[in-house]
Specification:
Blueprint lengths: L1 E4 L5 E4 L5 E3 H23 L7 H8 L6 H36 L11 H15 L7 H20 L7 H25 L2 H11 L8 H28 L3 H6 L4 H23 L5 H12 L4 H26 L7 H24 L1
Antiparallel strand pairs: 1-2, 2-3
Helix pairs in contact: 1-3, 1-12, 3-8, 3-10, 3-11, 3-12, 4-5, 4-6, 4-10, 5-6, 5-10, 6-7, 8-10, 8-12, 11-12, 11-13, 12-13
Length: about 350
């Protein structure tokens, strides 16, 4: 491993395998990681039970926690933090992948209709088969997302379809599925309608140690996906024609990348419901902190997404008190101003 400079003059770490890691990207990842830890410490303090990080560390090191503290920390607060971070990570990473695939800065799982496909199938399952085992919900989410992805590829012209064509078809499919969602909410019984509305707003109320075990493998899979697809996405950032000229098998890799985005967005939807606009915000915020491509962009986007969700949950519990403020709403309150500020600063920087 040697410290050298890239063709643009930026310092990089060069490994014997040929892998290059920009120092700026490493610093940005460290900053976002420290921010996530700081927000975790803050989130552990927020709640009716007076306990927090130091009690958790004492308990993990062999100290005694009373039942109320143990339940608050290990049964409620820590699961919310872990699941929120993992869900935000996966949605943001899926958004970054789709933006590179479509070469559109507004692309995300919601715009492609992937999240909506997962939501519709889950809602159909909950409405028409309410006695179905809860273990079928992840399967339903995956089936809905996969169905939309396959429909997009077929409608846009098969494996050789362009990213723009898939995006435009995704907008159309998402519009249709949104209508189906509205019909289900309007014409189901009130109790079911309220439950569906709460879930559609996004929440961490069902976070638990069991839920962590359910979403954990998908989070690990996202790391594998970032490693495997990073190089291809760097080529897609330069356009389909140049990607093909560089040897990227576009006809084979594009459906696989779309499938990977489906897996990540479906897992997140199952865990916390839809996180609207996060797939757009997080990659742009990460790019403002440190411009990156390929694997580095995916990792930084995932970190930014996790930080935004944990921060939004802190905002929800600190300001709303006993009011059940949906996570999606607090995420919008926190993330959109940051998104607007970064876009404005980027515009000033260009001048």
């Amino acid at each position: 491993m040697t410290l050298t400079r890239a063709t643009d003059g930026k310092p990089v770490l060069l490994f014997s395998s040929g892998l290059q890691i920009r120092i700026g990207n490493l610093a940005a990842a460290g900053f976002l990681g420290l921010l996530a830890l700081a927000l975790t410490a803050m989130a552990l303090q927020i709640g009716a039970t007076h306990t927090g990080l130091f009690d958790l560390l004492a308990g993990l090191s062999g100290g005694a926690l009373d039942p109320d503290q143990a339940f608050a920390l290990l049964g409620v607060r820590l699961p919310r933090i872990v699941i929120g971070f993992m869900a935000g990570w996966m949605v943001a990473m899926a958004g970054a992948m789709l933006q590179s695939l479509a070469r559109n800065p507004l692309a995300d799982p919601g715009l492609f209709g992937l999240s909506q496909g997962s939501m519709v199938v889950i809602m159909l399952l909950l409405v028409f088969v309410p006695e179905a085992p809860r273990g079928l919900i992840p399967v339903a989410a995956l089936a809905g997302g996969l169905a939309v992805a396959l429909a997009l590829i077929w409608l846009a012209g098969g494996a050789r379809s362009s990213g723009l064509a898939i995006l435009l078809m995704g907008i159309a499919v998402d519009t249709v599925l949104s209508s189906v969602t509205s019909i289900l909410i309007l014409y189901t019984p009130k109790e079911t309608s309220y439950s569906l509305s709460d879930w559609l707003a996004g929440s961490l109320f069902q976070a638990s140690p069991t839920a962590i075990l359910a979403i954990g493998p998908w989070f690990v899979l996202s790391l594998v996906i970032a490693f495997l697809t990073g190089r291809a996405l760097k080529s897609y950032d330069m356009g389909d024609e140049l990607a093909q000229a560089l040897g990227e098998p576009v006809a084979r890799s594009r459906p696989l990348i779309l499938l990977a985005a489906v897996l990540l967005s479906s897992a997140a939807v199952t865990a916390v419901g839809p996180l609207i606009f996060l797939g757009v915000m997080a990659p742009h915020l990460a790019g403002f902190v440190s411009p990156a491509r390929g694997r580095a962009r995916l990792i930084l986007s995932g970190l930014a997404g996790g930080v935004l969700v944990v921060g939004a949950d802190c905002l929800t519990r600190a300001l709303a008190g006993d009011i059940a403020l949906p996570l999606g709403l607090s995420l919008t309150i926190l993330g959109v101003p940051l998104f607007v500020i970064t876009l404005r600063l980027r515009a000033l920087r260009v001048r």
